[in-house]
Amino acid sequence: MKLLYFAWLRAKIGIAEERVDPPPEVTTVAALLEWLKRRGPGFAEALKDTRIVRVAVNQEYVASDHPLRPGDEVALFPPVTGG
Amino acid sequence: MKLLYFAWLRAKIGIAEERVDPPPEVTTVAALLEWLKRRGPGFAEALKDTRIVRVAVNQEYVASDHPLRPGDEVALFPPVTGG
Amino acid sequence: MIRVQREDFDVGAELEALTRGKTGIGGVTSFIGLVRDIAGERRIGAMTLEHYPGMTERRLAEIEAEAHRRWPLDAVLIIHRYGRLEPGERIVLVAAASAHRQAAFDACQFLIDWLKTQAPFWKLEETPDGPRWVDAQASDDAAAARWIKD
Amino acid sequence: MIRVQREDFDVGAELEALTRGKTGIGGVTSFIGLVRDIAGERRIGAMTLEHYPGMTERRLAEIEAEAHRRWPLDAVLIIHRYGRLEPGERIVLVAAASAHRQAAFDACQFLIDWLKTQAPFWKLEETPDGPRWVDAQASDDAAAARWIKD
User: Fold this and answer.
1) Smallest CA–CA separation between B13 and chain C, in Å?
2) Which terminus of chain A has fewer Cβ atoms in its 10 Å neighbourhood, N or C?
3) Which residues of chain C are at the B interface, by a Cβ-Cβ cutoff of 8 Å?
4) Chains C and D are in contact, defined as 3 or more C-beta pairs closer than 8 angstroms
5) Which of D12, D33, D109 has its CB closest to that of C12?
């Protein structure tokens, strides 16, 4: 699974992109976020309020119950501020 | 008094601009329109429905009861269609 | 700024000049009106725009001033052409620049809506059946009426 | 047409290209977003726009397609820049061309409102107190919510 982090999530986590192989019980976006939080203080800080974390799977916005598959591209980022 | 005609009013009346000296009882826009109607068939045709005639005195839109003075510039035209 | 002219205008240069050196502007909304080759059912060859020199400039200046009174704008632009114009040619450019996007949008819509019912311009279309004066549109009156304050 | 690029764009040339040869277009409404030197109380030196390559283009293409579904448009344009931009620089250009003025206005407003809440861009401002990520605006959510159909 490919993970991408943007804006202040990237800054807090300290990496822009990584490949991970989460345990089999991580089958949804919500489970992935909980698993990531436990990977270190940067993750815990970046993901402490998941209500303000937006998630895209394969470049489409998804809700927290969205199912995940091993080959997915999952991006985590704050609310967008373009335009 | 200077009179200006635009668009199809000008085309029907056949002149773009003239100087007139109406009789003393022509003290308002409404009276001017009635007096002009009697000046010939082009005027009668152009002014037969005064509801669709717009009037500007000294380049400001006015209503039919607006008073007139000898030195005024009075323009008659159809509803505008710019933009 | 307002201008009434026979010549075409350069949209990019005009909008650039409108905002140059004003770094508090967050957005510029503009509307360009073009000559269409069809109006309702009628095919149009070209049109000639007549106007009332002097009064046109006065009305446009009043519309510009009214926009400034109603919204917090950094700049307003109205350029309107007259003379003979072919399909595809530009007729009018209106633009409003503001720190705030919604003010720029609302003011720009106000400018074109009021211009259409207030500025003394008239269109004579060249049609296959001969020249034809364009009628005022009830929809333009309705659009302008949105901006009348109670 | 959509484009995501680091370089500046030529507004006049872009709008000209949008309408060229399409003589059924009556009006083009456009919005240009610019970098402001002040945001709320904070003085801004410059900002860096980050984006999500790939997803950005997909979202903008969906916004373009949605505008075409909702209004009778002849053309839609979205150009958005990324990278470091100084006050006064252009960030974004959106435009909608239609036979009908109101459709052009509504579609243009929709484009920028949806872009602001949907397209994955983030702004990092340079302030006297150091770099600062711009917060999403509740007013932008409210503006976008106008276009949600029941």
Assistant:
1) 15
2) N
3) 33, 49-52, 54-55, 58, 80, 91-92, 112, 115-124, 133-137, 140
4) yes
5) D12
Output the six-digit token pair for C107: 């003011």
Q: What stretches of A1-83 adopt beta strand conformation (E)?
A: 2-5, 17-19, 54-57, 60-61, 73-77
- Has this prediction a pTM greater than 0.90? yes
For A29-38, the pLDDT digits (tens) are 999 999 999 9
Tens digits of per-residue pLDDT, A30-77? 999 999 999 999 999 999 999 999 999 999 999 999 999 999 999 999
Contact across the interface for D28 and C37, Cβ inside 8 Å: no
Contacts of B80 in chain C (CB under 8 A): 116-122, 136
Kindly report the nearest CA distance between residue C26 and chain D, in angstroms: 5
Please state the ipTM of this predicted complex: 0.94
Domains, chain C, ordered by start: 2-131 (3.90.1170.40)
pLDDT at D150: 67
Closest chain B C-alpha to C107 CA, distance in angstroms: 15
Is 90 exceeded by the pLDDT of residue C40? no
Query: D38-54 burial, b for 16+ CB within 10 Å, e for fewer?
Result: ebeeeebeebebbbbeb
**pLDDT tens per residue across span D78-130:** 999 999 999 999 999 999 999 999 999 999 999 999 999 999 999 999 998 89
What DSSP string runs through chain D?
-EEEESS---HHHHHHHHHTT-TT--EEEEEEEE--SEETTEE-SEEEEEE-TTHHHHHHHHHHHHHHHHS-EEEEEEEEE-EEE-TT-EEEEEEEEESSHHHHHHHHHHHHHHHHHHS-EEEEEEETTEEEEPPPPHHHHHHHHTT---
Q: Which domains does chain B have, with CATH numbers?
A: 8-77 (3.10.20.30)
> How many residues would you count in chain C?
150
